[in-house]
Amino acid sequence: MLIIAAIAVIAAFVLLRPKADPVETTPSPSSISTPIDTSSPSVSETFSYADGAVEGPPIVHATQGDVVELIFASDVDGEAHLHSYEVMGDVTAGESVTLTVTADTAGRFPLEFHGEENAHAEVTVLEVTP
Amino acid sequence: MRLRQGRIPAIAAGMLGMIALEAAPASAHGFGGRVDLPVPRWLFLFGAITALVVSFVALGALWSTPKLQHRPLGRVVPLAALWRSPIAAGIFRAIAFIFFVLVVFAAFAGRPESLFNLAPVVVYVWFWVGLACLHAFFGDLWKTLSPFDTLARLIGVGATQRRALPAAFGVWPAAIGLFLFVWLELAAPFAADPRFLGWLFIAYTMVSLTGMTVYGRETWNQRGEVFAVYFSLLARISPFARDEAGTLHLRAWLSGLPSAPAVPGSIAVIMVLLGSTTFDGFSRGTLWQGWTRTMSEGAGALAATAGIVGTIGLVAGAYAGAMAVASRVSGERWHPMAVRFAHTLVPIAFAYVIAHYFSLLFIEGQIGLIVISDPLDMNMNIFGTAYWEVNTAILTPLMVWYVQVAAIVIGHIAGVVLAHDRAIDRYEGSMALRTQYALLAVMVLFTAIGLLILSG
Question: Looking at the whole model, is its pTM more than 0.80?
Fold first, then answer.
């Protein structure tokens, strides 16, 4: 019984595991662009904060090496902050700020907004897959 | 001054990090802002299938006489004389105490930003995660390292008991303290503020000394000191234990858990651990992030508080429900049964700790190596590490996923093994089997939820 169970578990692993590592099958064309090439971001999303509500996708998907552009506008002054990458941008009410990063580290990174009068929003999550 | 200004961008650029240079954000989670990528679906399925297979094997094919209950200690470890020598213990004690004092000073005198101060990383990463893991592998180190115990010995309090701590209180003082700590870690916006941590060190030292003075050092360490209770529970997983004379022995993995003291509050300790870690994982997922997206910091803290309490309640409810079903089989009341099987959940709780904090330990933990070179903000570079940068490349997402799923599955296996062993020790024949059904179902549920959270 134990042997059968062990075989079943190993078989499950072999069957379920993807044939090839998706990391290698999808090389990112922009993975060598070390100097940030802001003219052609691979990913670009726009967000806005007004009356305490956020408009825009809750997750931004990117592949490691992509140049990601996050455009954020708000109806109050404040600061937008992409965690871990530690990219920050001052936001002026009514205008938009663009945060540009080369997504060289995999993981999930929150973009947070801190504004005047206690305005606060978890704007989105940047998800960088290898 | 030039030196210091140069360092900020150097660290910040390489730092996988978190907390803005102003106050700690609402999504503080104690420490850390990077979150692991979700486990891919195939690995989730594999983990779930393995957990199920293991559970059915446990019902049909595991041993029929208890192997872990009342098991004597194994052979004495090599260098036993060294491990029991008071001089070696004294050296470790002194190092740990001096380090604690350094961290307290760093909390007040070091830089005020969470990321550049020694205290937050030591508390939430090195201590709460790192030292906890060491206990599960190497046994009860805190007995020797606890600075609170050392201080009580130094100033000569707590050798005798002035008043008895009522038996009905059990380990409730520690369970409540543990809840307050996980609340702080997961919900309080000021959790990682170094100055706040400094005051917390002082307050907790005062509480510990008072507890030890009144109820005796021994009693308070066993029932009131939060970390002594938590770490000693994890240490029961490890294959090392001391006999009455203090000689260090080997023992079977997990064999310390069946003899964990069953006192009032011991279930609560385990439920707080399971529930809070589950909530921490859930609150980093997209579902919770969506709900709390536009909350103010205060509202976010309130929501997190409700989330922690609710998750602990759900976990405890699921366990109590399973025990209610199982107790019908054996014709007992549910509560003594719940006490009897509570220890079987400890490996699952520890597995959650590994799954959720493994990458935190190895990536954010590096911050400690950097800041320890200048703990008091005096432009020093004691260990030559002050200009290091956090290297996130030491863990690839695939490594993190494998460790996470392996931890959850191994924790599940350990839980199933302990439950099976306790059931056959306690019940005869087919009743031993039938009392396991409900608990196994709950363990599969916990494991499935643990995997779901990792993949969501």
Answer: yes
